[in-house]
Amino acid sequence: MDKIPGQKRAVQYLYPAVDPFDQRMLEVGDGHSIYVEQCGNPEGVPVIVLHGGPGGGCSPAMRRYFNPDHYRVVLFDQRGCGRSRPHASVVNNTTWDLVADIERIRAALDIDRAVVFGGSWGATLALIYAISHPEAVLQLVLRGVFMMTQAELDWFYGGGAGQFWPEPWARFSDMIPEDEQDDLIGAYHRRLFSGDLRTETRYAQAWSAWENALASVYSNGHGGEAPGEYARAFARLENHYFTHAGFLEEDGWILKNVDRIAGIPGVIVQGRYDMICPPRRAWELAKAWPGADLRMIRNAGHALSEPGISAELVRVMDDLADLTG
Fold it and tell me: Cα 227 vs. chain centroid, distance in angstroms?
């Protein structure tokens, strides 16, 4: 187990990454099949884990926040990424397709209600799913809240975050000619969907590196170069969703519909120095959502792996385990 410095015994360790007891490819229609796995206790409290991105995929590390004796943990790769197929495809790939996929998973696994756990884009999707299907959600546990608003996209792709990180911002923006830099999402879109694999991979790695460089409060400004296949799915899917404003009906859709989850309890774990998803959005969400418990984590950025964020998420899930017996 990995010790998390400075924490009490209850949250000192992440749980072991136990092997899944069930792995399957689920046909969801529209030409897509998605990878789904279950681990932990088959009779335990169901937890549906939603990864970030869009396009990030799930990993064994995501199993480690849940007591495997208490929880039945369900992870899946959203359309177009990870082990789901077709890889890096944006055809029939929208927020509402993903919401429908969660319902298909819930039906296939015979889950009545579940805790929904998600970070970054996973928090966005968790909120949209809960607003759409409040009857299916026991509790929300969110990290690094992203509300899919134009203001957030402008912050991260319009130079706001670049004021704090000018070196990685220059590497990201200088990939694009100056006369296109007023719309970097659009400029990258043209290259990520150029039809030339080498061009798409090159710009996908630059897109991914910009985000990775700002993920941790301990970053030195270099995000590293992600493997080409992973980066291409991650960048294409993110760019596709951001180009279409998350496929939501209007800007600010989540806050405008938050009353639909008023009866659902939730915990928001937010890094105080999150440069990707600034804390103001988490604060606004908590103000509008009566069931929310906002926990700002000092000396933490955006990443799930930040020590303070990992510790708090383990604490939240352990406390919830106590409450649910």
Answer: 19
Peptide bond into 86 cis (omega under 30): yes
Q: Is pTM beyond 0.85 here?
A: yes
In sequence order, which ranges of 109-258 are alpha helices (DSSP H)?
Answer: 121-132, 150-157, 166-173, 184-192, 197-213, 228-243, 253-256
Residue with tokens 């604490």: 315
Phi-psi region of 120 (alpha: psi -120 to 50; beta: other; left: phi over 0): left
Q: Residues 6 or more apart from 320 whose CB is under 8 A from it?
A: 45, 115, 139, 141
For the chain, helix, strand, coil in percent to 5 are 45, 20, 40
- Average pLDDT of span 89-104: 98
Report, as residue numbers or ranges, the catalytic residues.
120, 274, 302
Q: Give the whole-angstrom CA distance, residue 113 versus residue 26.
A: 20
Q: What's phi and psi for 82, nearest 5 deg?
A: 60, -130
